[in-house]
Design a protein that fits this description.
By secondary structure, the protein is mainly alpha-helical. 69% of the residues lie in helices and 5% in strands. It is globular.
């Protein structure tokens, strides 16, 4: 078993154990409630404390990320019961790990003092991540508890949109001057209690704070102590700007295998860093959001949200689907006479729409991914159109021919087989054009290309496929 599978197995076991303890607690509690007697309250208190103490012992050694996964996997009532058992000093870390929807339910269950205490455990960049979900009064109290330097860092972090490098930026880093020796740096580091997390390199600046380069920790340890930093520092593989898109930072980390990267302002001064753990969290969140958006689901829906809230989160794209379904039905209605004369059309037309829809989803997935990686330019977009049209034309002729042969063998009508081949080729061409056009147009309009993409392409290929197939059949067969 791989290490990853082993971790998943341990997490499943923890979740199962937590669920069993919660069910046991609820069962015993219900039995005690049914009994009456002079010591009813005492018995209930003892049973309550015994079960919850065992549950607390199980949760105590778990990592905040594992507790977050358990909370996300529990219905709201049980989730809040577990949340009450988590030690107060870990509240902030766990709130950072859970999804936005689950975080909303946990914060709603906490009073103002608890929220302030949870936020005060965190660094300024982490507080900025929580700030959009916290009440204004809590943010004001947290501001008052920070030092002047931390307040300025928090203001700066909050000034950047959430999809930018500035929102991912960490202020906890070690910067050194380029005109000092390695010996001086080593003495300085020994005076620190600990290094910031993910410190694989030190950031070199000049007297004015302008970023100059990087000094890897492993290089620091093997270099002659009398050597100056300027002689051994290395240029940065990537210099990030706080206004850059977060996706650009993710691409840089993937391309150069980075653990940390400097963030500089327009004057070149070092203002922070981005670390790999933050980038991984961003990529995971974006991947989850894209998967939900592609199906027309809201990214802020809790798995165990109330029925009414889930209905409200889903009805937008269901309404769009209803409209497109009516359009498709009217397209079919235009050819009712043709279908009545040749019943085989009713049996064959879902094949054309289904294959073209699948082909369109393949194309749209490829284009959305390329847009996310920044691989598409104005010039390459035209080449992509040509390439996808070519792929669809070949697929249409091959698979259209296969379907045409089957249609002939089943219905003994060679004209029907030719119509099927032609309809398949044209429908796949339509799917290719729309599969490239939809995400490009949405990006041009400033929208997320993944939002509702599969819903839109399916609607177009269904209506278009029906129209193409039934139209050709009407012209050549009826």
């Amino acid at each position: 078993m791989s290490e990853r599978d082993e971790i998943r197995s341990e997490l499943r076991e923890s979740l199962q154990r937590v669920t069993e303890l919660l069910q046991k607690h609820e069962l015993v509690e219900s039995l005690v409630h049914r009994q009456e007697g002079p010591r009813h309250d005492l018995v209930e208190s003892i049973v309550h404390k015994a079960n919850l103490a065992e549950l607390q012992r199980l949760l105590e050694p778990l990592h905040p990320a594992d507790i977050a996964d358990i909370l996300e996997s529990l219905p709201v009532k049980q989730r809040l019961m577990v949340w009450d058992l988590v030690k107060a000093e870990r509240d902030g870390e766990i709130l950072l790990e859970v999804t936005d929807a689950v975080r909303e339910t946990l914060i709603a269950h906490m009073d103002e003092q608890e929220l302030v205490a949870a936020a005060e455990q965190l660094d300024t960049d982490e507080i900025a991540d929580l700030a959009p979900d916290l009440p204004r009064e809590v943010i004001q109290d947290v501001f008052r508890s920070l030092s002047p330097e931390e307040r300025e860092q928090l203001r700066e972090a909050l000034s950047y949109p959430e999809d930018t490098v500035g929102a991912l930026m960490d202020f906890d880093m070690i910067s050194i001057r380029d005109d000092v020796t390695i010996e001086v740096i080593l003495r300085y580091l020994r005076r620190l209690d600990e290094l910031p997390d993910h410190t694989d390199q030190l950031f070199v600046v000049d007297r004015t704070g302008v970023f100059k380069g990087l000094l890897a920790v492993n290089r620091l340890l093997v270099t002659d102590p009398d050597t100056t930093v300027a002689d051994v520092m290395q240029p940065a593989a990537a210099r990030l700007r706080p206004q850059q898109k977060a996706q650009e930072a993710a691409n840089a980390f993937e391309r150069y295998d980075l653990v940390s990267a400097p963030v500089v302002d327009d004057a070149g001064e070092l203002i922070g860093r981005v670390t790999v753990n933050t980038v991984v969290d961003y990529i995971r969140e974006e991947t989850d959001n894209d998967m939900l958006s592609a199906g027309g689901l809201s990214e802020d829906e809790d798995l165990f949200a109330s029925v009414w809230k889930s209905v409200r989160n889903r009805w937008t794209w269901l309404a769009v689907n209803l409209v497109t379904a009516f359009i498709a039905s009217r397209v079919i209605g235009l050819f009712e006479d043709s279908i009545a004369r040749l019943v085989a059309l009713a049996a064959l037309m879902p094949i054309v729409a289904g294959i073209s829809g699948n082909s369109g989803n393949q194309t749209i997935t490829l284009i959305v991914r390329a847009l996310a990686l920044g691989q598409i330019t104005a010039t390459s977009a035209r080449k992509l159109f040509a390439k996808e049209i070519g792929v669809s034309a070949v697929n249409g002729l091959i698979w259209g021919g296969v379907v045409g042969i089957f249609a002939y063998l089943i219905y003994r009508n060679w004209q029907l087989g030719i119509v099927m081949t032609g309809a398949m080729a044209l429908s796949l061409l339509l799917a290719a054009v729309m599969g490239v056009a939809i995400p490009l147009v949405m990006q041009r309009l400033g929208r997320d290309p993944a939002i509702g993409a599969s819903v839109m392409i399916t609607a177009i290929t269904d209506s278009g496929g029906f129209f193409i197939f039934l139209g050709l059949a009407t012209v050549f067969l009826v």
